[in-house]
Specification:
two-stranded antiparallel ribbon, 4% strand, 281 residues, mainly alpha
Length: 281
């Protein structure tokens, strides 16, 4: 009987120890959870923004001139594109939809008007005033390092390089299938290829230049700067052209105000997040 009593007592001790061990597990889990709450979670390192580097100022350029910003360039490009091609696109759409059977006079007038507008904005106006409608609207102009205007050929090349590349593409597209029919298709295809390559080279130069100077800008030593009035009263048609800059300046001001508002709102959010983290601590 003594042995049986000892065995029973051992079984009782083991049964009593098991619930104690089971009860210890939730206590350990609670301790781990409390430790996790106590130790703050590691914050992700914020990516440091690279500081904007100001564009190098060209040597010899007077301090009276300021290099045009990217926004001024965008405004000038869109205005010129709209003026040069809106009527032409309308004429093309009308000719395609009507099929040439009806509305022939209207489409002819539209094509003629598109040609006159392009000649005026791309050739006449740059030779006459040194600026096109896009530059009037964006309040920009091309000058050389000494402040003088570049040769009129610069304006012709810069303003028409996009259109010339388009003409070159059409020439290559139409003449590439007729290369075996004499020398004329070969000559036209070669000219078209040169016009397309010039546009690519000019784009590569402006892309890799600190001052966004294209091929012809470097050749003529020209820079696109903010327009500075030469002084004196301007009247008539020139005065109306000068007044176009108000639209571009108002648009640029709205864009700048939106950027400033975004910066202020982001700063306010950061302050709120920092204050919330401090209160939690």
């Amino acid at each position: 009987m003594g042995l049986l009593d000892k065995v029973e007592t051992k079984d009782e001790v083991v049964k009593k120890a098991k619930p104690v061990a089971k009860a210890a597990k939730p206590v350990a889990k609670a301790a781990k959870a409390a430790a996790k709450k106590a130790t703050p979670a590691p914050q992700k390192a914020k990516k440091e923004k690279n500081p904007k580097v100001k564009k190098a100022r060209p040597e010899g350029l007077s301090s009276d001139f300021e290099i045009a910003s990217s926004l001024n360039r965008v405004i000038s490009w869109w205005v010129n594109f709209t003026v040069n091609f809106s009527v032409l696109i309308g004429a093309l759409v009308m000719s395609v939809t009507t099929g040439g059977a009806s509305g022939g006079t209207a489409t002819t007038l539209l094509f003629a008007g598109a040609g006159l507008i392009f000649i005026f904005n791309g050739i006449v106006l740059p030779i006459w005033t040194g600026r096109n409608l896009g530059q009037y609207t964006s309040s920009t102009q091309y000058i050389r390092g000494d402040g003088s205007k570049p040769l009129f050929l610069h304006g012709l090349f810069v303003n028409n390089i996009g259109v010339s590349s388009l003409i070159g593409f059409i020439m290559v597209f139409m003449q590439a299938g007729q290369l075996g029919n004499g020398t004329a298709p070969i000559v036209l295809t070669s000219i078209g290829a040169v016009l397309m390559i010039l546009w690519i080279v000019n784009w590569q130069f402006s892309r890799n230049s600190d001052l966004n100077q294209g091929l012809f800008d470097l050749v003529f030593g020209a820079y696109l700067v903010r327009y500075v009035s030469e002084g004196g009263e301007v009247s008539g048609f020139r005065a109306r052209l000068e007044s176009m800059s108000q639209f571009g300046e108002k648009y640029a001001q709205r864009v700048e105000d939106k950027k400033k508002a975004k910066v202020v709102s982001s700063d306010d959010k950061k302050k709120e997040e920092n204050s919330d983290s401090e209160t939690e601590d």
